Protein: Integrase, catalytic core
Amino acid sequence: DEGQPNNYEIETNEGEEAQAKTRPTRIRTQPSRFKDFVVQVPLSVKHSTSTSNQVTSTVRCPISNFVSYDKFSTNRKAFLATIINNDDPKCFKKAAQDARWHEAMQKEVKALEKNGTWTLEYLPEEKRAIDSKWVYKVKFKQNGKVESTRLV
Structure:
């Protein structure tokens, strides 16, 4: 319709495909539920990630700009450090290299065999095994010590 304003400027270069120079814009406003509050959130902070092709990513509100550990007690800081530095294995190969996970897997298999809910069988040639996934989780006590290592 000729009466409608054109939101795009289109330029063509001798047989090349038409490309939009600008995108339509909209006015961004604060959600009405915040009208009674003073809200100051940075629109974006650029963080550069160093890779071979120097990709730059943008994070809207990096939590590191808003979180401080100054008010936590020494015990709480130790607990947080333990949880943050804990790296639960994502695959069997990594879990099998750790003695505590090896022990947890042995306990799990023994419990399944004891209950009679699981037996090892040979797979017939014409059949294909289905995948199963074990999720490895560490449960911590309040003081940061490991309470248990479990397969979930």
About this structure: The chain has a mean pLDDT of 72.
